[in-house]
Known about the structure:
Radius of gyration: 16 Å
Number of helices: 10
CATH architecture: Orthogonal Bundle
Structural class: mainly alpha
Organism: Niallia hominis
Shape: globular
Keywords: Glycosidase, Hydrolase
InterPro entries: Adenine_glyco (IPR005019), DNA-3mA_glycosylase (IPR052891), DNA_glycosylase (IPR011257)
Protein name: DNA-3-methyladenine glycosylase I
Helix content: 40-55%
Number of strands: 2
CATH superfamily: Hypothetical protein, domain 2
GO molecular function: DNA-3-methyladenine glycosylase activity
Order of helices and strands: HHHHHHHHEHHE
Largest sheet: 2 strands, parallel
Distance between the termini: 16 Å
Strand order of the largest sheet: 1-2
Amino acid sequence: METRCAWANSSEMMRDYHDKEWCVPSHDDQYLFELLVLEGAQAGLSWSIVLKKRDAYRQAFHHFDLEYCANLTELDMENIRTNTEVVRHPLKIKSVKSNALAIMEIQKEFGSFAEFLWAYVDGSPIVSNWQYDSQIPAETDLSKKVSKDLKKRGFKFVGPVTIYSYLQAIGIVNDHISSCSFHGN
């Protein structure tokens, strides 16, 4: 029988996310962008709310195609903002465009967004050994550093708490508790 981090037991959707995505290392720039957008949208909300809206986000932002998102017009963003299936916060929607543009600049400089992010940990995930979910921090020195660097490059909705959650989501940090069946994955 598989054991999971406690938060993953709230719904089937959360279990699937926990089992298949959370803390799984990714080097795919489009996926990294998708999770950055979703983590930014989550600020102030629960992750389950954002996951429920994920398909609508994929439709609204053409599966997080960087080129498409970088070229969103004011009218495009207003049309997305009126979509009740996404988080309708106007600055969060505008951040999709600015973050896409910032990622494209990073790609020019570093070859990929993944190369830029994974350089913070020399290409190897940080594997934590927490006993309980309650021990997992909201932010760390790493998330503060990445957040600061991203903000300097023009990213929005990338505070240190959001970025720590993001680093977990994309597998740079593996915070599965030690008794979780997915801790070693």
